[in-house]
């Protein structure tokens, strides 16, 4: 099964408001339908490892904290856009939580080197006019929004033709 660990950021209206500003005529894009901060993508995992993952995550303790949205960004870079995202801060608190989680899972999974605290807004297949697309991204407007981080979730992702579906396996 395909798994990842995330923090839910439930405010569909907020994120959809930003997504509505994306010009679908300029690119072949798919808007995300759920909004979360992925702390760690585990990938394809054998079912037999799930109890060990849960046991490790139960040991991760952290103080609740707040994050807020900051800026619009893209992956992997402005010349080859495949993902549009909105950033979160304070990144140091998010990274501290991520590091605790990585430490708890170090016997099972490698730590990721590159990490940017973000919420994915859209995935891009093709851009018709890169210059206009880039200009439009700079024009996206939003007010910074605060979210409370109270728990982390182990989530199963099932890839479907119309996008992934998510199922929470455990909450910590």
Q: Can you walk through the features of this model?
A:
By secondary structure, the chain is an alpha+beta fold. A hairpin with a 6-residue loop joins strand 8 and strand 9 (about 165-170). The model has no long low-confidence stretch (mean pLDDT about 95). The chain starts with a strand and ends with a strand. It has helices at about 10-20, 50-60, 90-105, 130-140; strands at about 1-10, 25-30, 35-45, 65-75, 80-90, 120-125, 145-150, 155-160, 165-170. Strands 2-6-5-4-7 form a 5-stranded antiparallel β-sheet, with helices on both faces. Strands 3-1-8-9 form a 4-stranded antiparallel β-sheet, covered by helices on one side. About 25% of the residues are buried. It has one domain (about 1-170): Cyclic phosphodiesterase (Cyclic Phosphodiesterase, Chain: A, Alpha-Beta Complex).
Task: Quickly list its features.
5-stranded antiparallel beta sheet; 4-stranded antiparallel beta sheet; Cyclic Phosphodiesterase, Chain: A; alpha+beta; 172 residues; 4 helices; 41% strand
Describe the protein's topology.
Blueprint (H helix, E strand, L loop, with lengths): L1 E7 L3 H8 L7 E5 L4 E9 L5 H9 L6 E13 L2 E10 L1 H14 L13 E10 L2 H10 L6 E4 L3 E6 L6 E7 L1
Antiparallel strand pairs: 1-3, 1-8, 2-6, 4-5, 4-7, 5-6, 8-9
Under CATH at level 1, the class stands as Alpha Beta
Distance between the termini: 20 Å
Going across the biggest sheet, name each strand in turn: 2-6-5-4-7
- Envelope shape: globular
